[in-house]
Amino acid sequence: MTAIDGGDLEAARQVLAETFGHGAFRPGQAEVIGAILAGRDALAVMPTGGGKSVCFQIPAMLCEDGVTVVVSPLVALMKDQVDALERSGVGAATVNSSMEREEQREAVRAAAEGRVRMLYVAPERFADGTFMALLRATRVRLLAIDEAHCVSQWGHDFRPSYRELGDVRSQLGDPPVAALTATADPLVREDIVQRLQLRDPEVHVAGFDRPNLRFDVTPVRNQGEKTERIGEKLRSLDEGSAIVYCGTRKRVDDLTRTFQQEGMLCARYHAGMDAEARRRIQDGFARDKVRIVIATNAFGMGIDKPDVRMVIHHDLPESIEAYYQEAGRAGRDGDPAECTLYFAKRDRGLRDFFIEMEHPPPQMVVDIYRRLEAAQGERVHVRDLRDGEHEPGLNAAVQALVDSGLAGKRGYQAWALKPGGEQEIDLAGLEAHRRYATQKLDLMQAYAESVTCLRARLLKYFGEQEVAAACGNCGPCMAPVSAPREELSEQARSVFERLRAVRRMLAQEADVPPYVIFGDATLREMAVSLPQTRQDMLAVSGVGRVKFERYGEAFLGETRVVNDGEADPAPRDPAARRAERQPRRRRDEPGQETPELSRTMQATLELARAGLSIEEIAGERRTTTGTVATHLARLVRDGLIEDIGTWVDNETVLLIQRAAGDGPIAKIGPLKAELGDRVTYEQLQIVRAWSNRGGRD
Ligand code: ADP
Ligand code: ZN
Fold first, then answer.
1. Sheet with strand 407-410: strands edge to edge
2. What gap in Å lies between CA 375 and CA 373, rounded to an integer?
3. Domain range holding 423?
4. Quick check: is 538 in a domain?
5. Interacting residues of 510 by C-beta distance below 8 A, sequence separation 6+
């Protein structure tokens, strides 16, 4: 195309106004159009709905002659665009395989004669010799590649036919190329530039900022605190809707049940539910019949409710794109909305486990191939390919062999297809995918632990150019200067535990959930400020008059004692005294070394640290709860797990210890016989390991 000058952009602005009816360009549009008009390659990265189409449609319309070829992956998308253009009086047509030859020829002829300015095609079309011959007889002014991320193996929509597009350009007489995508992942972006052989492209990333969204991360120490704080947050929702995203279906079920038992009106949604139930929830959500939905990432397609005021993440998402896509469902109406991620250090474990499942270590793929090969084409049950117990990634490893044509698989049976095919295993590719997934997770974790502006982090990740260092509307930007919450001192922690014991007792008496009495934050403040009087107590945030009248004295009973000067006062009520012997909450120690663990134990440990229940771990690992309990007991015995509160509550621990005469526990059978349904075998195993550990307390 001709060199750009101010007149070209002015002409572009006129087309924008006259044909499309928009008064001004959106961020990035003028830059991309300017580059294309100047004959340069361009890569435009804009969110869905950001206005990518006009970036190539306007240059196409400004050309005096020749045609713009638009590559798009889906026939349905093309049809929509062509219809919209036709309605605005712009000539456009599609060419696809369902059309008769004559129709195809007519479309290209219309393009050659200038009646059609844009020809929409699927990438597979370029493999069709007849079509290419027709096209070569026409002047192609611009090759626009929509959904350009399909070219990248890193994207989820990789299309082999997109790969060939780099060569198509030269066959079409070397027109400039405009690539467009909404996928703002740095690696995918690089991949697009490389694979499409863009030459010094104008890369423009724009429109990702959503100023009305307030981003925040709430650090928590464990799953219990997480549930409690998310509950508190949801109860503060006074208008509009909220979505809580969880990492697994099981967590969706559990969290929904917990909240519902607490009397909250909420519904669950995940792909394990039948279609009818899911439709009902979607519908109820759209019509405000249910305002809080707890869901996996399956809840999203077609959710365009404008007044979602909160998007809460219960678990660490796999990547920043995944997070932003889900969080972005908040505040579509432009009014303020909150996006809050709840993060405990151990949450990373669950994601690491998923990576392990999806991207087995290359050596494991090789080992499995060798075993299949040794069977000389005989069918082998997948179960027999593992070392000992189920290993994460086993299925993915077999699948990798199937995908590369080295193995066949039907049901649970697999067999080698090619003897001596080991060299064909794409070790580098497997390793690259694994590393890539880990890198993305690292960046997500860095976000979760960020002490600087969260919005700046997001936008920089996406590649936006001019990003302010602080936005003023996110957690770190709004935190008071003395930001990080102080860790409790040894004394405060022991007071805190006693306050919790009092709370538990009161909650049981009143038959209400503990947080109804006071939240953890309130107890923590009491443990630090040690109120001595009614007045002191009322100054603690979260303590109102009504609550003080009901519960205040019971808590004062604990905080007063400490200031009496007793070094370690004996709490007077039995519940509190018992609390002294409770499992102590372990602090997070992410880098703890576990060199001797087998892979299968390591996997259990990671899931345990991520706070999963026994059933959840068994589900993820496809093994029995008995096996999981055996693992957990061993990990507890070896001191790798110190806090067993996730699997056995304090009351049950005491119950078991009392039944065992408060001594070491030898046999589980008699205890089970005595305690019956009040405990499970799994719990007994874990408590035995915990109680029998040497050198404790
Ligand atoms: P994308 O392809 O990026 O998802 P579209 O090109 O379909 O987005 O545009 C989304 C919407 O934004 C369309 O309704 C379009 O008319 C509108 N739009 C595009 N550019 C502008 C603009 N400069 N001003 C206002 N609206 C615009
Ligand atoms: Zn900020």
1. 380-381, 413-416, 407-410
2. 5
3. 362-429
4. yes
5. 516, 517
Considering every ligand atom shown, identify the ligand nearest to the alpha carbon of residue 211 and give its number. Answer: 2
Cβ–ligand 1 distance for 54 under 6 Å, the answer yes
* Cα angle for residues 425, 430, 432 (degrees, 5° grid): 135
As a whole number, the mean pLDDT across the chain is: 86
Burial bucket for residue 418 (CB in 10 Å: 0-12, 13-18, 19+): middle
From the alpha carbon of 81, which atom of ligand 1 is closest?
7
Positive or negative, the Cα torsion across 326, 330, 334, 340? negative
CB 436 within 8 A of CB 177: no
d(CA 451, CA 472) in angstroms, rounded, equals: 13
* 158 and 61 part of one domain: yes
- In this structure, are 565 and 589 located in the same domain? no
Is residue 46 lining ligand 1, measured as CB closer than 6 Å?
yes
Provide mean pLDDT across the span 126-131. 90
Of 266, 638, 230, 656, residue with least CA distance to 647: 656
How many angstroms does the Cα of residue 230 sit away from the middle of ligand 2? 22
Q: Which pTM does this prediction carry?
A: 0.66
Helix (H) or strand (E) holding 95: strand 92-95
**336 lies in some domain:** yes
Nearest CA to ligand 1 atom 18: 51
* C-beta of 231 in contact with ligand 1 (< 6 A): no
Residue 547 lies in a domain: yes
pLDDT in tens, 590-621: 434 334 567 778 888 888 888 888 988 888 87
pLDDT single digits (tens) 314-324: 999 999 999 99
